[in-house]
Amino acid sequence: MIARRAVIAALTPLALAQPALGQPAPARIGWLTAQRAASLAPFIPALLAGLAERDLVEGRDLRIDFRYGDDDPARVPALLDELLGMKVRLLLVQGAAAAAVIRARPPVPVVFVMSSDPVAAGLAETLARPPPGVTGITFLSAELNAKRVELLRELHPGLARLAVLSNPAHPGEALERAEVAATAGRLGLAVRTHHMRSAADLDTAFAAIAAEDADGLAVFADGLALQNRAAIARFAIARRIPLVSGWRVFAQAGALLSYGPRLEDSYRRLAHFVSRILRGARPEEMPIEQPRIFELVVNQLTAAAIGLPVPTAVLARADLVLE
Description:
It contains 14 helices and twelve strands. By secondary structure, the chain is an alpha/beta fold. The protein folds into two domains: 16-140 and 263-285, Rossmann fold (3-Layer(aba) Sandwich), CATH 3.40.50; 144-261 and 294-322, 3-Layer(aba) Sandwich (Rossmann fold). The strands form two sheets. A seven-stranded mixed beta sheet has the order 7-6-8-9-10-11-12, with helices on both faces. Strands 2-1-3-4-5 form a five-stranded parallel beta sheet, with helices on both faces. Helix 5 (97-104) links the parallel strand 3 (90-94) and strand 4 (110-114). The termini are far apart. 41% of the residues are buried.
C-alpha cells in the first residue's frame, strides 16, 4: 500500500501538468520583439485582458512564449528560429521586428503591432490587402500630426519656429513630415527637421535646435524616440521649449503634451486577430487596422517648469492631466 501511494504521489504533479482527458492542449503562441521587456510591460496585461475577453485564458487555452531582443534588432532572426523550433501556432510580432519576421515568410500566421506604415515599408500592398499569412495593427496616422501642431500653437500662441525630431529610417516618416509642413504653412510657422538615426545623433540635433532658437518641438513617435524620450524631454524642459509627441508615455516622461492612439487599446485589440486565427480565419482576410481610440494628455508639471500656462479649454478636452 505504501509503495502504491508513493507511485501515485510521484505521478500527481505530472498528471496535473497535462490537459484533462479530451481537453485539447493549450495553443502555443510566440511573442517576438526587438525591444526590452520593461518598455512593453504596460501593454502585456492589455493583450492578456483582450484574450480573456474572447475566452482565451493563458495557461488554459493558450501559452505565450515571450522573446525580447533587448534593443538589438540583430537578434530577431535567431529568436524567430527559436520560436519556430518550439512549434508555435502563431507569431505576435511587435515593433521593428515585424519587418524582419514578415520578410522571412515563416510557416505560421503573423500578427504584428508597430508604429511604422506597413505600406511605406513594403510589407503590404494596402492596409486592406495584407500579404498571405499576415495581418495586424499600425499606430501610424500621419494626419494626427496636424492636430498636434495645432494643439501646440493653441498652448503657445507665440509659436513661430517649430523644430521636428524624426527618424528618417522609420517607414511613414515622410508622410508625417509632409503633414507637419502643410499645417505649419497654414499657420505661418517656420519648420526645420532634425534627423536621428540612433541615440548618438541626439546631441547634434539638440545643438542645432538650440542654435536656431526653436520655440516648439514635435517628436515623431517610434521605437527610437521611445527609448530616448526621457533625454528628449529633459532637453526641452531645460530650454523651455514646449514639446509634443504622439503617445502618452512621452507626456509621462516630461513632454508638455501628447496626442495620439491609446496604445493599451491597440494591444488589447490584438486579441481579436489571435482569436479569429486560432478558430480558423486566414490572416490576409483581415485588413490591417489603425488605432480606434485617441487621447490627449497634458503635463501640468512641465507647463509650470517652462512657464507656459495651459488654457482652460485645453485642460477641459484632455483625457488625462498629469499634476
